[in-house]
Structures are given as C-alpha cells and as structure tokens.
Protein 1
Amino acid sequence: MIETEQIKHHNNFEDCLELEAAIHACQEGIYICDADLRCVRLNSAYTRITGLTEDELIGKTSIELEKNGTISKAVAVIVKRDRKVVSLIQKFRSGKNVLVTGTPVYKDRKLFRIVITARDLSELNQLENQLNDAEERSERYLRELSLYKEHIKSEKIVANSPQMKQILNLIPKVSKADSPVLLLGESGTGKEVLARLIHETSSGGDSPFIKVNCGAIPGDLLESELFGYVKGAFTGASDKGKPGLIEIAENGSLFLDEVGELPLKLQVKLLRVLQDFEVTRLGSTKSKKVSFRLICATNRPLKEMMEKGEFREDLFYRINVLPITIPPLRERKEDIIPFIIKTTEKLSSRYGTLKTISPDVLKILESYHWPGNIRELENVIERTFIMTDENSITVKDLPSNIAADKVSKDTYTLKEKMQIIERDIIEDMLKQSSSLREAAKKLGVDASTLTRKCQKYGIFVQN
C-alpha cells in the first residue's frame, strides 16, 4: 500500500513537471488566478507580452491590479460575474495593448480557476501586415501576368525611308538613357511599336512594359488605375486595395498613350511623381518610392494646348526631354511596299496559305494617301488577304474606296475598271438598304445575282 502511494506521488510529480513545461513552452501568455481572482501562476510569455514582472502580479488580485493602474480592465472580474468566456483588449501600465481571453474552470460546480491567455496585438498586427503584403504581391504578380499575356513583342520596324532610318539610329542612344521620351505623330503611325522597341532595347527590357491609353479611360477610373488605392478609398474599392500601374511598371517602362487627353488634375499628380519619384495611393497618406522609364505619345499639338491652358507647361517640359516625331506614311512611301510584303508573309504563315500581290495592287497601295497610316494599311492587307479566294491578290480584291481612287485610263483594262466601279456601286447600295433583297430590287437584279457578286468581290453582307 505504501509503495502504491509512492508510485502515485511520483506519477503526479511527473505530471506537474510536464504541465509546467508545457505552460512555459507556450508562445501565448498564460495567467492563472484562483476563485478570489488572485494570481497564482503565469508563464514567461505573459511577462514578455505585457511588459510586467512576476513580482508585480503574483499574489495580487485582478481588482487590485485594475485599481492601481497595472491593467486597464480586469477580464477575470467579468468572467467571474458572467460565468462565461470573455475576450477584450487590455491596456497595461507598460503601454502595451494585448488581446486577452479569460476562461472559467470549475471544480465540483464551483469556480476553481480562471485561465487567461494573452496575445500581443503588435505581433498580430505584424502578421496581418505580412499577410497583406503577401496578398498585395500576389495581386501584383497576377496583374503583371495578365498584362504580359496581352503584351505583344515588338517586331523589327520597317525602315526603308530616310526618315525612319534616322529615327532607328536614335534608338540605341535613347534606350541607354532613362529620361522621359515623347513620341509625336498622327494616329496609326506606329508610336506604340517604337515605344516597345525603346523599352526592349533598354536595360529594363525584361521588366514590365505597361501601356495606359489616357483617352480610353474616364478620369476618376484612370486616377485609381495609375496611382492605385487602399482599402476603403472609395465606394466599390477592393477590400485588399490595389497597386497602381505606376507601381507595376517598377524598373520597367510606363507608356502613356494619348497623353494629351490626361485631365489637368492628373497632370498635376503625374508631375509630382516625376519630380519626386514617389507615388501615393488614393486614400493613403503614405508615399512609396518608384523607379520607371516614362514614354509618352500623342497625336495632339501639345504646345497649342499649353497656350489654351489645356496642358500644363511644367509637365510638357518634364516629358519632352527626348522628343521623336514619326512622319505619316504618305511622307515615307519607301516603307509602304516592304511593309505590305512583310505583313503578307506574316499572314501566310498564320493561316497556312501562300498568297502573292500583283504589281498593279502594289502600285495602287503605294500611291494611296493612307489617312489612317500604318494601322489602316495593315487592316486593308489583312482584310484583302482573308476575303480573297485566289492565291493572287488583284485590283478587284481591293476595297472600293482605295481602288476607285486610282482608276485611270493609263493603268487598267476596261474589265478591271468595270469591276471596281461595280463593286463600289454594290457597297454603296447595301449601305443605303435595310437588306440584300431591298438592295437587289433597287439595282434591278435578282437577290441571287447580287449574292453571287458580293461573294465574288468579298463584300460582307450582314443578315
């Protein structure tokens, strides 16, 4: 019997040691008081989290600690009164704010102990900040990935004309610098292609190339897209906030297309970013250092806009460090035929169909004035390539406005002239009619005949 009691005592002692070790190994603060709310035990984590010592707490009641200002509000008093688990934020004399949870422990249906756990709010806030940073990085990476999917690698620019050769000779010098570049020229002249070439040949060529069309996004939305925002910055803002495109362009290039459309309010904010290389998200007071290459493009007369007060003079001089003017296609006709051949080869590869272009077509396209510049020329070539059934693109396959522009007695046969004029008449009549049947009636032909001619000339008829 004596041996049995000794074994029990030994086992109880080992259990106590094990429990003591477990309490002190816990990273959360543990504070235990008896039914009279007197502190009987605490672990080292509790003193670390609260900034208090054992001498200040052991043997003292929660009422005393609250009264002498050691703690702001005694959770144990509330637990004993309400007989339930209670959580609150407690402020300690050390100045620390701690999240505490008091849990009652009963023995024979009577309150025996109250166990209080303490969590350092500064540690929780640090973890929350780390989580927010991780989520922000994730959001940034996902957005960059989305932008990279849309990113089309610029191809070598066609430059047979003296003007384009001169521009290409400037690119190595421009790429080495990190100064702002301003690309000037009519719509469709290839400003974005040149901007990508500058970016890709620069030291940051592997970093993001972020394009923003300033004329396609409403002012308020453009502001949040460019500068980003924090949680609660405006109605409908994401709970996680969002990095702006300026931040996403870090170490890369920010391409502001149609910069002349930038509202005056945003011109001021952009100027501040370019002066300090710091960006502040909407709804935040904290600025963040940024590093990026600015490339702007416009087809508008910025100097005239400055005189009218539509564009800030200080911003103009800030972005006009390295200006490059791209001439319209009609002023560099030497580039037209090489571009047509290059585009046709690309389309043949894409569609797996080899097509050639007749000399007459090349002559017409070279002499056309191209108000829409490269963009219009590329669209015409692609449309003609797709709609032509034969392996050779001839005059009759060209859009009527371009072909009719060059119908002359010196160049074409009577048959070709008649085909061009016939197609032009059909297209005009279809535009004036609500249906193919109505157009056929006005032209005095059967609907089946008109359908056949539309197919012949590659005219799309909307049902």
Protein 2
Amino acid sequence: MRATETLAKFIASLKYADLPEEVVNKTKDTILDTLGCGLAGYTLAAEEIKPLLELMIENGGRPEATIFGKGAKIPCLNAALVNSAMVHTIDFDDTHVPALAHFGACTVPVALALAEKIGAAGKDIIATVVAGFEAGGRVGRSVMPTHYEKWHSTSTNGTIAAAGTAARLLNLNPAVTEMALGMAADQAAGGRYCLDHGDFTKSLHPGMAAFKGVLAALLAQKGATGPRGFFEYPTGYCNVYSAQPAPDKIAENLGKPFEIMINDVKVFPSILCSHTPIQAALGIVQQNNISSEDIEKINVTIAALPKGQGCNYEPDSALAARLSIPYCVALAVNEKNVKLECFDSARINDLKFRALMKRVNILQDPELNKLLPALPAHVEIITKDGKNHKLYSPYPKGSVKNPMTREEIKEKFLNLALNTIKRSQADEIINAIDQLEKYPIQKLSAHLKVRKRMNR
C-alpha cells in the first residue's frame, strides 16, 4: 500500500475510542492553548488582524461558524481562515518540533469551524484534531529538515494537517480522503521571508493553510477529483518540497506514538528557537544577581538555522521582535522575564535597549542539530568585571522532555484569554474543554466572543 493511501486510510478510520487517555488529555490541552492564543490575538494583535477580519466580515455569507472574539458568524471556510491567522498573531501557539510547524493553529480552528457548521460531537472534534496532527506531522517528517531551508512548514505541512482535520470530521472515506490530502498538498505554499523580517504573511500562513485544507476536503466531499499517491509521486509533494525526501516515514507505525504527543506548548511568546537561550540567560542573571548594566557581552550558541532566522538586530514591530533572539535574550537579562507586554513599540525603539541587543552574539553549531528534537542553547554572559558565567539549556519548558503541567496550561490560557473576555467566560471555556466529549459545540462557540465593552 502506498504512503498516501495508508495515511488516508488511517485518518478516515480513526475514532475517539482508539485514543488512549493521555492522547485525549494532550489534545484537550492543545485545544485550550490554541483558543487562548486566538482570544489574546484578537485584542493584542488587533491592528495586525484587522484587514483580514474586516474583509471576511464585509464578504458576508452564510452564518456557519464563529469568529473568535468578534463573535460574528461567517462561512466556515472564512472563519477557519480568520481564526487560524488570529491564533498565530502573537507567536505564542504550540510547535511540533519534528515538522517545525504550528499545527494547533492549522487544526483546532478548522475542527471548531466545521464542527459548528455540521453540528459535530465533542468526541469527533478530539479525534479530528489528532488526525490533523498525524497528517501534518507524518508528512512534515518526510520532507524535513531540508524543507525548512526554503519553506515555512506551518504554511506547507500545515495545509496537509488542515486537510486531514477536515477530511476526518466530514467522515470522508479513505479514497476521498486521499484525494483531499492530494488537493491540499498540491496547493501548499509559503516562503520564509516572514520568518526573517516579521510581517502579516506569517500569521496569514496558518490561515491560508486552514482555508486550503477545508476547501480541499469540501471539494472532495462534493465529488471533485484530486491526485492520489501524491506524497510519493515522482513530481509530487515529497520530491518537490525536499532535497532528501523520505515518503516511507509517512506510513511507518502511524499512531505509535501519535504525533500530537510530540507537540510542544510555549511558555514564552516568541519563536521557539529563542526559548532555551531565554531560559539559560534568565538562569544566569537570576542565580548571580546580574543586572543588564553589568553585562559586557552575551554569547548564545544554538543549532544551525536557515540563513537570517532569529538574527534580526533591528526589529521594527512586535512580530519582528518575537522572531529576534537578540531581542528576546536582551529582554530576559533586562526584565528578568519575557512577557507579551514586553514587545511594545517604546521598548523596540529604545536606543539603550537596542545597544543591549547588540551585545548579544549569536553563534551556530551544526553539531547541535543532531540533538533534535532537543533545541539546546549554550549561553555565556561576560560581565564588565571580567567574570564569565555559563549555562546550558537543552529543552524548552513546555516540550515533551520538559512539559508544562495541565494546571500551568490552564494558567497560561487564563492569562491570554482575559485580555479579551470575562473570567466567568474563561472558566466556562476551561470547563467546556475538560468535558468536551459531551459539551455542545454551539455552547462552546458562544463563550468565544466578547461580552464586555472593549476599546476597539
């Protein structure tokens, strides 16, 4: 059986009853974390999401699915687009390290938008998100690591994750699921400019991935024909999008483990490759009572990254700053923390802070790439009195090897959601996800909109 066919059969046959308890719990955590990012993005990235939000509302259409925060109902295709983009605006959403993709943003809004349209049950929503992660994660593994040199995996592999999500929730049979995956993969795109510079296309990438994935599944459901065997085809996805294609990885031991179990939750609102540098820098300054004025130089050694990634010394926006390791490390030593409110225009443009950023020296060691999925960082802080302080951080907090507890994930959700909704609503969302198996989707959607006056 071909790789694409095997994956499609797995997705089409996956049921809630097939999922171990730890997979169900991990999926619920992922859904909650994704919703928190979306609700915070609605308020904290209001200007960034405004053009897309306004355009989709102006386009109108059948009221099928709810826009996070706004509460307006629009066609599910458009709701998936807006909500997926909104989730990614603050760069605080999860990361699947083997595929280097933000699959939560590409699957959860898709599952909720389609579920609201068709009235799907909570158990199916859970199984659907797991299926989406399996699709994106397995195909992502088959094209990495060379894929990431030129493509933004959230946009490319995220399109496949979204299609797997939609196909499973629509209960497409294996043959139709295979064509939906093929159509989605055939439309996948998204370059790396946004990762180097920071602009709206980075948020748009998961939005368009969601849109294309849902579109492919809906077209396939209506009888549109798509490519079969497309992942392993000589001029298909794997061979086109990777210099070292490995399509056999797609079908190898599916669900063992489930890809969602390898998903990382973020504790800092920044690009994941900045997290272990942040942790190590924080550890040094806190353990040794070092202030930013004491620092002569900071050397940060990380795995080799695609050219330009993480090394922006002149960010001009909050998004660009979140993608800058020098900015994030400077925050860590100056503020003794890295929080959403630290990515403000005043700080970004502060000359003294910019001077501190210039003292951060980024070094890349290809040998550290061999340690993936670890994302290690060696940080050395040299103080003006000549002392040298070093700390090694192998795994970011929130990773599989250094996980957040369920209570920590709920606390993160509250911190994010309360930027937009009332505490009572936030608590009800937590309750809804805890008992998602029996919680009505329409009732959950009603909690995802603003009920208090906001200055917008």
Protein 3
Amino acid sequence: AERRGRWVTTRQRLDPLGGLVAVIPGPDDLFVPRGREGLYKLAPGGGRARGVSVLGGALGVARERLWRPAESPGGNVIELLIDGEQFFPALRRDLAAARSSIDLQTFIFSDDVTGRSVARLLARKAREGVAVRVLVDALHGVLSAPLRAELRAAGVELVVQHRWGESVAGSLRNIGHTLLDGVGALFGRRPPLRERRGLWNHDHRKIVIVDRRIGYCGGMNLGHEYEFLWHDAQARVRGPAVARLEALFSERWRAAGGPTLVLPELPPGSEPGSLPGPARVDVVETLPGVRHDIRRRYEQAIASARRRIWIECAYVLDDRILAGLRRRARDGLDVALIVPDDEVHDVPVVRDAFRYIQNEVVRSGVRLHKYGGRMVHAKVAAFDERLATVGSSNLDRIALDELAEANLFVEDDRFAGDLRRRVFLRDFRRARRVGVERLGWWDRLKSGVLHFFRGLL
C-alpha cells in the first residue's frame, strides 16, 4: 500500500508479543494518494478491535483508524475584507512586512496593473531573502514570460500547473483508471481514492500565507477587476487555522511538482497560534476524486439551520444545494439567495441555465435577489446567528466535485454578524427582488438546453 500512497484504515496483524508483523489492506479500507499522507494521522486513543480471534489471549487481528484533521480548533482571529479596496491594501501590507516566507496560490494572476504590482512586491521580498512560493493555474493564462522570468531571477519559486498537455495526459489517465477500476470491481475490489487532474480538474483556490502566521482565503484572484470593479469577499485569519491553510498549499505544491523548499525558522514570537482569538475556523476543501467536504458542509448547514440561510454566490446550479434551499424555504425558514444580475453576469451560459429553474426557486419561497451594477463574484453564506463561510467555491457541480477549492467555515458570533451586516443587509438593498417571470419560447428552449448540460458549466 506504500507504493503510491497509504490506506485510510488498515487491518493490522499482531504477533504474540504485540509487534506489527504486516499491514494488509482490507475490503473496507480506503487508499490515499501519495503526497497526501502528511495530512492523515492515527486517531487519538489507538485503534478499535475488530474481529479479534484470541489464541491463548495473545494472537489476534486489530484495526487502527487513520483520521484526517480537516477541522481547525478555536483560537483564531478572523477579519472580513469586502471588495478589492479592503483586500489588496491589507495583502500588500502583509507581503511587504513578511520576514521569513510567503506562499501564494491563485487561479488567475493577470498581467495587468494589479497583477504586476503584486508580482514585483513578491520579487522584492525574494531578493530580501524571504522564501517565496507562487502556484498558479494555467487555464486563464498567467503573467507574461518576461515577468515570470523576472520573478524567477529574483528567487521566487513559481509553478504553473494544469497546462494543456498535463491536463490531456491527466484525462487519459483518468479514463485508464476508470477502466481498470471497472475490471477490479468485477472481482470485488474497491477502487482506490485517486485525485483527478484532467481537463476539467483545475485548481480554483485563492490562498496566501505570510510567515506561517497570517492566512488569506476567499474568492479574489489577482487582477484589475478584482481590485477595482467586482464585488467579492476575502477573509484574513491568524491562529491555528493558518497551519491548515499552509498544509493545503504545501500539498498542492507537491502535487504540481513544485521543488522541495525548506522554510526558514519563524521569527521569535510569531509562531502560529501565538495571538489566539475566539473564532473556530474549519478549513474545508474539495479535491477531485478524493474529498468533497465543501459540499458536505453546505448540505449539513442547510439541513441544520433553524431560522435563516443567506447565500451570496456567483454561480448556483447544483441540484442538491438548490433542492435543500427549496426544502428549507418550504419549512418556513428565511432563505435568501443573491446572484449577479443578468446584465452584468460574466458567464452568460450559467446565467441562462439558472433561468430555467429560477421560477421554481422563487415559488418554493426562496427570496431571490439579483445584484446589479457590477459583477458579484463572492462565495459567502450565513446560517442562523453563528455559522458563516467564505471561500473560493461556487455552488455548481464543477466547483463542488471537479475543482480543487478551499473555504473557511467560521463559528463565531462576531464574524457571522459582520457578514450579515456588511454584505447581506447592504446587498439586499442594492439588489432587485425577483418574482416569477414569464419566459418566451426561445428563452425556455435556450435555458432548458443549457440547464441539461449544467454539470459541465
């Protein structure tokens, strides 16, 4: 099991003296791909005995469970940053003050005024001796070749992942694994967990970690529209959750083939968690083929809410999420959804696919609002009084199943209240409430066809 990874649970054969003789994968075990082993560990308290046969009380079979610390403990300080006018100044201040390391991952790193200013700040810090790692997805293009060369010449470790050739090869591997798993299933084998890195499986996360004590996570890429034009949200966190963000970044860095980099020692007094706060922050991820925890956490929060579910999101097409919202609205909860207005939506095919189910959403009792004037790119939600989330994941099948994503789920009265006051209550006033609308035959046909292909949008 160690050739390409390890099993999430193991059946362990013990000798009469209690020493481990062999580790044999069992039918209920799950396989973890190489590069993710560091995010798993033995569960506290040891294993649970299962099917133990006792010969003289000495020989038996025991089972130890491995668990993954997906949740961060309390003791975090978290700030909500709304729009580029708040996020980018804070980011630049933290980058400029970095003393030991900067890890930055983004989906889009535009070669414009905003992107170049951040890139040159990273280059300056690298020349000062700060360890700088930058991970960018290739789908939408990245910094120009001269600027990439400038970064690397300054000492920045830059990795561009999911290039077309890599993605095509990944899709072919996915097809091969699917065929092999199908053959294995005929013989009762459970297929291993494998990350999918094909044409559809890009890395949509936006994470920054500075000196391993300050972390950012949210919806904003590095580009002009995110700093000056669009409506979006990001969170800045200090405390134990930063170590989890660092673990996500480092795992993606290794998966993308990034070079091993030994980070310098932290400056005295700047260790993670040295400035504790009241907020419990869970760093939750989606990793295609391996983990779909953002979907799970959204569904749990929707199902367990008692009074209120408010969501603001750029792209909402997932059947299960929408069914849950309609069901809770019929239960009498205050369910509200804010999406971009039709005139400013940046992906017309997603806008039109949503129109096919829009009336059904409204008839269920969900308050549907469309935000006009500028594109809404935020991915935020507030549940009742205490739970809130901000991150990179939209609420469509591509984001929830096929892209690598990261969200912060925050249990904190102050942060949840801040999100309600500064985002939702303001945006309700700026958005138009949508009722049942009559669609012409062409709009019904077009939206119906696009909705049929919603799993690809």
